[in-house]
Design goal:
By secondary structure, the chain is an alpha+beta fold. It has helices at about 5-15, 45-50, 95-110, 135-150, 160-165, 235-240, 255-265, 275-295, 305-325, 330-345, 350, 355-380, 390-400, 400-410, 420-430, 435, 450-470, 495-510, 525-530, and strands spanning about 20, 60-65, 85-90, 120-125, 155-160, 165, 175-185, 200-215, 220-235, 475-480, 485-490, 515-525, 545-550, 565-570, 580-590, 595-604. The protein folds into three domains: about 5-245, Bira Bifunctional Protein, Domain 2 (BirA Bifunctional Protein, domain 2, 2-Layer Sandwich); about 250-435; about 445-604, Threonyl-trna Synthetase, Chain A, domain 2 (Threonyl-tRNA Synthetase, Chain A, domain 2). The strands form three sheets. Strands 1, 2, 3, 4, 5, 6, 7, 8 and 9 form a nine-stranded mixed β-sheet that branches. Strands 10-11-16-15 form a four-stranded antiparallel β-sheet, with helices on one face. It binds serine.
Length: about 600
């Protein structure tokens, strides 16, 4: 089975069970200051898990692009990736444990669908602790299925929160016990009688989360009114399993990329464990970089936030390319071209942004090539542990991301003073510490009151920018914390003080006009006709939510024709602009070429 068939089968299965197929959201989260990337399929759906109504209904399914950099050091083995696709199905207050488990079992084992050997499957459920009880319900459902299929009940493991709980780490939000499904990748005639978490041959292929709690600010787990199901099936892993492969890099999702690396380096993938590892890292990192740069939010390599991650990925790939002996100048785009041709019909943005992506890789590679050789020479001259000043010099003068220095140091058996590096960094520039320190963990949006207000203010500001600067202004990214909003938008030059003032005045005018904020669900075509702002290149005939900020007609209804702002958006927003306070732009600066960035606040 190839990846296309598998992706389609998953969506078809859930479509036939009344799920709406929705398209993948961007890799760059909107309005979520807690993470740099979309790390799971549930991520873009958080508002709906918290109770907002989704325009497509209460049963959803999709293939979501994801980036996880938390496991970056494990990339190089057979199953970890920075970029991966997560197949998911969701119930938003619709079905719960019984149906969710039954769907997964049917999809995996039915001869009509994946037809996996039942005897090679095992599962785990939440064992219970002081916060929440043992998930008896999930256990009983599985026990029924296992009994009916003459499978040993020892293959249903009860594990603690560390294994079988999903939700925000340390913060508030929806969460709950999960049940994981594993496939035995070892000898099919020697499947162990019971499941053992320590045995790597049991590969996790699916995670069904039962979101039945909300972790409140006091750290208590209170039952949610709307009980949801959030599942995630790793496409790469299941594809490998379906093809009897222990190595994801031998599936069609990587085969062409690896062949290209073999061609460029003149080495063979299976020549030695070191070469296999280097090729996997290059394949993984450049695939991830290609997807991030091609994302419609327009990320390019830089020293902050997502840009820093892309830089790290590209530079690490280049270093491993050197290790493989690749001599061709500017070769990273060759790999990106393969990624684009393999995926562009599934993820249209790859084809659309092809030229920009290849040019961006060339530029980054050229830049790094100028200093890499010298930097390595400097590095190998060092003896003993590396202090903060030296690590900073390698970063500043030779372009070595801190993590690369740490990796080189580990190979040499020496240490790097990370804290010392961070304080040097702080001394030298106003660089986003969160990015450099690795803000890579999962988390959930802060849907607090201040964030909601700033979100509405961001809509007003975008509309005002278009009035003052022109219709070429479109949103390129946004990030909102409880303290401020940040919006990136297309505009070729620095704004004048007059135009900044004009934007502030328009926004404050809209605030003092007390416009109501209304939400409607429309088809994409209708939304487009209305002239709403937003992303329109969706693949499926989806319905979307439009937030309109408009004055009232004499009859008391919003006058949509006179709308100040209309945007496709998931929410949430305030009900009336009157509550926002006083809007003020704090900073206007360049973000990347042709893109400006504004930071603004609301004063009480
Ligand atoms: N949120 C869960 C995960 O990422 C299931 O989708 O594993």
């Amino acid at each position: 089975m190839n990846s296309r068939e598998l992706r389609q089968k998953y969506l078809d299965f859930f479509l036939a069970r009344d799920h709406a197929v929705i398209s993948s959201a961007s890799l760059i989260p909107e309005n979520d200051p807690t993470v740099l990337f979309t790390t799971a399929g549930m991520h873009p759906l958080v508002p709906y898990l918290l109770g907002e109504k989704h325009p497509a209904g209460t049963r959803l399914t999709d293939a979501q692009k994801c980036i996880r950099t938390g496991d970056i050091d494990e990339v190089g083995d057979a199953t970890h990736h920075t970029f991966f696709e997560m197949m998911g199905n969701w119930s938003l207050g619709d079905y719960f444990k019984k149906e969710s488990i039954a769907y997964s079992w049917e999809f995996l084992t039915s001869p009509q669908w994946l037809n996996l050997d039942k005897n090679r499957l095992a599962v785990s459920v939440f064992a219970g602790d002081g916060d929440a009880p043992f998930d008896q319900e999930a256990y009983d459902i599985w026990a029924g299925i296992f009994r009916n299929n003459d499978l040993p009940l020892d293959r249903i493991a009860k594990l603690p929160k560390k294994n079988n709980w999903w939700g925000p780490a340390g913060t508030t939000g929806p969460c709950g016990p999960d049940t994981e499904i594993f496939y035995w990748a070892g000898d099919p005639s020697k499947v162990p009688a019971g499941f053992n978490d320590d045995n790597d041959l049991w590969i996790e292929i699916w995670n069904n989360v039962f979101m039945q709690y909300n972790k409140n600010a006091a750290g208590r787990f209170e039952p949610l009114v709307q009980k949801n199901v959030d599942t995630g099936l790793g496409l790469e892993r299941v594809l490998a399993v379906m093809n009897g492969l222990a190595d994801n890099y031998q599936t069609d999702l990587f085969r062409n990329i690896i062949s290209k690396i073999e061609e460029l380096s003149g080495r063979r993938y299976d020549e030695s464990p070191e070469i296999t590892r280097a090729m996997r890292i290059i394949a993984d990192h450049l695939k991830a970089a290609t997807f991030i740069i091609s994302d419609d939010k327009g990320i390019s390599p830089s020293n902050t936030d997502q840009g820093y991650v892309v830089r790290r990925l590209i530079r690490r790939a280049i270093r491993y390319g050197k290790q493989l002996g690749i001599k061709i100048p500017l070769w990273t785009k060759e790999i990106a071209s393969v990624v684009i041709s393999d995926y562009h019909d599934i993820y249209g943005e790859l084809g659309k942004n092809r030229q920009l992506t290849l040019a961006s890789l060339d530029k980054e590679e050229e830049k790094f090539n100028r200093t890499l050789e010298k930097g390595l020479a400097e590095f190998y001259k060092l003896s003993g542990d590396i202090n903060g000043v030296t690590a900073f010099t390698l970063y500043q003068s030779y372009g070595f991301p801190l993590e690369m220095t740490e990796e080189l140091a580990a190979e040499k058996g020496i240490k790097v003073d990370r804290d010392g590096f961070m304080s040097e960094l702080k001394k030298h520039q106003d660089l986003s510490r969160t990015a450099a320190a690795g803000k890579f963990k999962g988390g959930l949006a802060d849907a607090g009151e201040e964030t909601t207000k700033l979100h509405t203010a961001a809509h007003l500001m975008l509309a005002a920018l278009r009035r003052v600067l022109g219709d070429h202004v479109v949103q390129k990214g946004s990030n909102i914390t409880p303290e401020r909003l940040r919006l990136d938008f297309s505009h070729p030059e620095k704004m004048t003080p007059e135009s900044i003032k004009a934007v502030e005045d328009l926004v404050n005018g809209a605030i003092s006009s007390h416009y109501p904020v209304t939400c409607e669900e429309l088809s994409l075509a209708e939304a487009k006709n209305r002239g709403a702002m937003g992303v329109f290149d969706s693949k499926y005939g989806e319905r979307v939510k439009i937030y309109t900020i408009a004055p009232l007609q004499p009859d008391g209804h919003p006058d949509f024709k006179q709308a100040f702002s209309q945007e496709i958006c998931g929410g949430p927003h305030v009900e009336n602009t009157g509550v926002l306070g006083h809007f003020k732009i704090q900073k206007e600066e360049a973000s990347s070429s042709g893109v400006r960035r504004i930071k603004a606040i609301l004063e009480k």
